[in-house]
Design goal:
By secondary structure, this protein is α/β, with parallel strands linked by helices. The protein is built from nine helices and ten strands. The protein has an eight-stranded parallel beta barrel with strand order 1-2-3-4-5-6-7-10. A two-stranded antiparallel sheet has the order 8-9.
């Protein structure tokens, strides 16, 4: 690990001392309502170059099998739209860290189905929340989560799919709040294609100040020391209305929350994050919300180019 020049400063006229990535891939979490391919069409209409979806009902345990026609239509739409990478987010009920063995077994089975569907859809990444240890020590939850991942992938060929564990805000006994916990989660999984998805709102609520240039630089240095920047594959770009260290998950519109425009300007232009697609999971109260948040990110990228 290490070896990155993590300092990054804006010049007097908005330029930087480091080369900004030539292209950044921006996307949204798109709805699959009606048909899976609708998510690709929505992403393309918004001008996205990447996309995140659910592959089924995120609030249920059961998942219908994908039909061959549905898969084919989805793959054709993705090819036509030039959308890459494809990120799939696991359902919300999965708790791989649960102290309850029955819930944990059910979660393993549900995660296995998520893996199978992601393989069918030729996804690049499958994002999963590590879960909650409830009132048990975090170390115990981390052990359960690692074991559950191993059980779920047994016998599967993950030739192009990478599992991404998402950092959490830390509410309700969630594991994965700190970089040290994430490092512990990854320990012993080196033989599997497992990386990390960093959510900016969760990181801020967990106590990592991303609202300033110095704060972002310090955070990325700590990421590199704890897990290595090569393990970070996707950024969930979300502002938050929760104060620093508030340990609650409340996403908000880009630049209108606690992280603010300065923090996101540094993040989306940072050369060390140039390999990562940025996916919006900001609130969608009106049809204009996704376009407005995408436009704000694009404006921040353009502001120092």
């Amino acid at each position: 690990m290490g070896g990155f020049a993590l300092q990054f400063h804006f010049g007097e006229e908005g330029g930087s001392l480091y080369t900004v990535p030539a292209m950044i891939r921006l996307g949204v979490h798109a709805s699959i309502s009606g048909h899976l391919a609708n998510a690709i069409d929505e992403a393309a209409r918004l001008g996205c170059t990447t996309v995140q979806i659910f592959s089924g009902n995120p609030r249920g345990w059961a998942a219908d099998a994908l039909s061959k026609d549905e898969v084919r239509a989805f793959l054709v739409a993705r090819e036509r739209g030039g959308i890459t990478p494809l990120v799939i987010h696991c359902g919300y009920l999965i708790n791989l860290a649960s102290p309850n063995p029955l819930i944990r077994q059910r979660s393993v089975m549900a995660f296995r189905r998520e893996l199978e569907r992601a393989i069918e859809l030729r996804a690049d990444y499958l994002v999963v929340h590590p879960g909650s240890a409830k009132d048990q020590p975090a170390e115990r939850g981390i052990h359960h989560c690692r074991d559950a991942i191993r059980r779920a992938v047994r016998g599967l060929r993950l030739t192009r799919l990478t599992i991404l564990i998402e950092n959490t805000a830390g509410q309700g006994g969630q594991i994965g709040r700190t970089l040290e916990q994430l490092a512990d989660l990854l320990e012993g999984l080196d033989d599997l294609p497992v990386g990390l998805c960093l959510d900016t709102a969760h990181a801020y609520a967990a106590g990592y100040d991303l609202s300033t240039e110095a704060g972002v630089g310090e955070f990325l240095s700590r990421v590199d020391s704890a897990v290595g920047m090569d393990r970070i594959a996707v950024i969930h770009a979300n502002d938050t209305c929760i104060p620093l260290g508030g340990r609650r998950d409340r996403h908000w519109h880009i630049g209108q929350g606690q992280i603010g425009l300065t923090g996101f300007r540094v993040l989306v232009n940072h050369p060390i994050l140039g390999h990562c697609p940025f996916i919006l999971e900001t609130p969608k109260k009106t049809p204009d919300d996704d376009p407005a948040n995408l436009a704000q990110l694009k404006k921040l990228v353009a502001s120092i180019r």
